[in-house]
Amino acid sequence: MGLYHQATDYRGNTGSFSETNMKHLKDIMKDRMFEEGSHLFWESDVADKLFYIKKGRVKLTKSTDEGKEMILYMYQTDDMLGQADLFSSAQHSFTAEVIEDTEVGVIEHKDLEMLICQHGDFAIDFMKWMGIHHRLTQTKFRDLMMYGKPGALCSTLIRLGNTYGEPHAQGTLIQKKITHTDLSNMIGATRESVNRMLSDLRKKGAVDYENGLIIITNLTILQEICHCEHCPNEICRI
Description:
Blueprint: H1 19-27, E1 30-34, E2 39-41, E3 49-63, E4 69-75, E5 80-81, E6 95-108, H2 109-118, H3 120-146, H4 148-164, E7 165-168, E8 171-174, H5 180-187, H6 191-203, E9 207-210, E10 213-216, H7 219-225
Antiparallel strand pairs: 1-6, 2-6, 3-4, 3-5, 3-6, 7-8, 8-10, 9-10
């Protein structure tokens, strides 16, 4: 199987910005520290800022009417998140929870609007970033709706490998500790069903474990189950 060499080179979802435009963006940021367990924003808060992660990790979640939490995105260093509805008032559709101590650059919409108006090339890069963000959302909903829970789980494992994977003698080692509860929250399934599906994948030789970490041992099996469309790495990520 192919190893995830690209995972270690991942530039974050802001890779669409040129070096010059990234500097423009960083110049208008205000640095803030958030402790583990705190929140950048809550669902229904006014969406008037974007957040650039300089160091740390943040998960974006959605709560159901029954109170179940679903993890939609996991952001890390060099990722930017937030509701990008500029030039109009909007509310956040999700909750952003800090899962380790995190340093972020806070970007006010009004400052971002000024930057877009002043620099046409920056506006183009920003539109590229929005396009990647929207495509990522579309592919995640495809995973959840088209090929059942096994397909969603296999796609999630591939995304985890692309995001946190390191070459390993057996295949690709996912360097972050991901619990079965985490996986169940990512695909909208019960923990028990995730246990069964992972057991089946292990019997098929698709995954294995080492010190509590998941190893992808046969990428092809996972791709066949989720009908992988071989999206680029900036799209196929968690």
